[in-house]
Write a structure and sequence with these properties.
By secondary structure, this protein is an alpha/beta fold. It contains 9 helices and 10 strands. It has helices at about 15-30, 55-60, 70, 80-90, 95-105, 130-135, 150-165, 185-195, 210-220, and strands at about 5-10, 35, 40, 45, 50, 75, 110-120, 140-145, 170-175, 200-205. The chain has a 6-stranded parallel β-sheet, sandwiched between helices. A two-stranded parallel ribbon has the order 3-6. α7 (about 150-165) links the parallel β8 and β9. α1 (about 15-30) packs parallel to α2 (about 55-60) and α1 (about 15-30) crosses α9 (about 210-220). It is globular and about 45 Å long.
Length: about 230
């Protein structure tokens, strides 16, 4: 196994942060790890280059100069739903382009962490959703559950959608993107009972901490041994 697709129960649940945490944990195991965000919407100006902020973060965390065209094949200017941003620019994401980029990264790293955009069924194009990416790349899925009100329903619907497409759920991570939720322990226990895939770890609310300390702190709470392809 040489990669994972990271999705979330919604937008804003911390997929990019968790992808960075997973990258840190796998790097600590001695693996080389390439980040990939096939489709990104919203850019910042970085040294005269229009770059997505999440992509910039993941490339910096990787500690290796992976080619931008492979890490982020599609980058759209407006920070809106990707298929709408693409339509505004007269572009439609091509899964073949994404496959080629992924295969290039596979030759450069032990593991490729592929982060989706938005939730699992956010449209990729007028006819396909983000779910097509792990299907086309034959990747198991890691689900980031945003621990806040409504997370049980969102998580179970996403788990059902992943299974309905014949994909393997490699595990899920409980991330608290906002202030600690009411009845956190009870919600976590319910999710553990209802999701058959393993809980890979919990990430508490780390708001206000710099990334340099927040990412290692979060990584320390994850069990990533099962994600190491050399141990299969």
């Amino acid at each position: 196994m040489s990669g994972f697709f990271i999705t979330g129960t919604d937008t804003g649940v911390g997929k990019t942060f968790v992808t960075g945490v997973l990258m840190h944990a796998l790097l600590k195991q001695g693996l080389s790890v390439a980040p990939m965000k096939p489709v990104a919407a919203g850019t910042i100006d970085t040294d005269g280059i229009a770059l997505n902020e999440d992509v910039a973060l993941l490339m910096a965390l990787a500690g290796h100069p992976f080619p931008l065209h492979a890490v982020n094949p599609y980058c759209f200017r407006d920070a809106i739903a990707p298929h709408i941003a693409a339509a505004r620019e007269g572009v439609e994401a091509d899964i073949g382009v994404i496959q080629t980029a992924y295969l290039e990264l596979r030759t450069r790293a032990d593991v490729v962490l592929v982060e989706g955009a938005g939730g699992f069924l956010v449209p990729l194009s007028n006819s396909e959703s983000m779910a097509l990416i792990p299907q086309a790349l034959l990747l198991p899925v890691i689900l980031v559950v945003g621990m806040r009100l409504g997370c049980i329903n969102h998580a179970l619907l996403t788990v059902e959608a992943i299974g309905a497409r014949g994909l393997k759920l490699a595990g899920w991570i409980a991330n608290t993107p906002d202030q600690t939720m009411n009845a956190y322990a009870e919600n976590l226990s319910t999710l553990q009972r209802l999701i058959s895939a393993p809980l890979l770890g919990e990430i508490p609310y780390l708001g206000g901490q710099p990334l340099g300390s927040a990412i290692p702190a979060a990584a320390a709470g994850l069990n990533c041994a099962t994600l190491n392809p050399t141990k299969e």
